[in-house]
Amino acid sequence: MQFLPQLFLGVVGILGLFLSVWIVIPAPIFALLPLSVATPEISPWLIGVHLLVILLMATGAVQGLFHRWMLGCGLVGLALSLLPLVQFPVVHQQAALAFQDLKAELSLSDGSKPLRAAPFVWRDAFLGIPTQPTVRHTPQVTVAIADGVASTLDIYRPAEAGIYPAIVVIHGGAWRGGSPADNAVFCRYMAAQGYVVWAISYRFAPVHQFPTQLTDVQAALEFIQQHAREYETDLTRIALLGRSAGAQLAMLAAYRPDGLPIRAVVNYYGPVDLAAGYADPPVPDPINTRAILRDFLGGTPAQIPDQYQAASPIHWVTRPLPPSLLIYGGKDRIVQSKYGRALHQRLQSMGSRAVFLEIPWADHAFDAVFNGVSNQLALYYTERFLAWALRSS
């Protein structure tokens, strides 16, 4: 009669330990990247699994050959699963210190929605972050057609008509893929908080190489200027927010001297110095960084140094620039956090307002788990940064 409970707990213990190991191990290949990305974010669930195994062992519900082995699995898995939450208070404290000046200037007297009350909410980790289903969504608006490829965007607006500050969201995908429909949960959430969210697209490498992607972003920004009144957008309060490759494009659009005026940039784990990234790829390198960069830019840094320089946001930090929020994962082996830190230092040296947030346990694209530990923290500070940067003058 004890065989079935032992078998069940054995499977649960092995699976829980297997998943928990990926909290600290970066993915060596692309196929394993979802494990490395997701497991730190679902660590509250894994804590529950390991506590269950340990409790059953401690109460003697299962005895025999597997008892000590399963108890060991539960204890090791619990220790690994606790790591993000153990580190969380220190990371939050560091971010709070970086935000002190902004917090002192932040005023919500313009009628903005309340911000998240805490950087981590246990209930949200299990049940999801509440979002408003009543925002107005206008999908697949055509911006332009070039080379037979249609550039489109999705628009999310608050439920009530009005004039709102705007966030232009640029998706990631290694410049090879992605869609304005990516990160729809985030877009809906921010629209419910009182923003018009424009989720834009661009043409993909290797068929279309840089600067095609930046040209498409600039075309989308010009479209937004032309149609701002129609879609209730306050053109004096616009921020760019990009993820990964989209963050690189967002920074270029904001930092280059020929860019359109914007109020702020939010960079989620974006490439900063492409030549340095080519010379020093991450280890492990699950996406083959050098191949991605060659497809995007058309060659190596030795062959086309000017192209690499023009595509590197850090190259354009030569004067005071719009405020920037830089968010990176310490476990990221696609875009290493050291590049975000270097950009932060460069921005500050040029007199720009910049905040750098490194989440030690987080991997690339951590915010794909919207209610995960890392994204709760990132969302908490992204909300505050945008509320400060886009506040009424």
Your description of this structure?
By secondary structure, this protein is of the alpha/beta class. It has 2 domains: 3-89, no CATH class; 99-389, 3-Layer(aba) Sandwich (Rossmann fold), CATH 3.40.50.1820. The protein has helices spanning 3-21, 33-41, 43-58, 67-98, 100-105, 122-127, 184-192, 212-226, 245-255, 274-279, 289-297, 305-310, 337-349, 373-389, and strands at 136-146, 149-157, 164-170, 196-200, 233-243, 264-268, 324-329, 354-359. The chain has an 8-stranded mixed β-sheet, sandwiched between helices. Helix 3 (43-58) packs antiparallel against helix 4 (67-98) and helix 8 (212-226) crosses helix 9 (245-255). It is globular, with a radius of gyration of 22 Å. The model has no long low-confidence stretch (mean pLDDT 92).
TL;DR of this structure?
By secondary structure, the chain is of the alpha/beta class. The protein is built from 14 helices and 8 strands. The chain is globular.
